[in-house]
Amino acid sequence: MNDTYLIRTLNEKFVFRVYRTPWRSNYSEVGFEIDLLNHLFKNGVPVSTPIQAIDSEYIQEFFLRGISIN
To answer: Which letter does DSSP use for residue 11 in this model?
Structure first.
């Protein structure tokens, strides 16, 4: 299971996806989805493209009240 949020700024909009543990907690599964989206975009398919964080990673892990969220 995951949650998807639409985030709008004055000039742009973003889709933010949060995967809940254990749903797709395997980084290779999420990485495959990211690679697929990048591939589709590079081949002209209109998809949301992943954005790299400051550390150049696409996947970030954070904790909420002691629960791991990937």
So the answer is: S
Percent composition of the chain: helix, strand, coil (DSSP 3-state, to 5):
25, 30, 45
Question: Distance between CA atoms of 24 and 2, rounded to whole angstroms?
Answer: 9
Sorted by sequence, the CB contacts under 8 Å of residue 48 that are 6+ apart come out as 15, 37
Q: How close are the terminal C-alpha atoms of the chain, in Å?
A: 11
Q: CA distances (Å), 48 to each of 42, 57, 60, in order?
A: 12, 17, 18
pTM: 0.70
For a pLDDT cut of 90, what percent of the chain falls above it? 43
Q: Which of 54, 55, 47 is nearest to 17 (CA)?
A: 47
HSE, CB side, 13 Å, CA atoms: give it for residue 7. 8
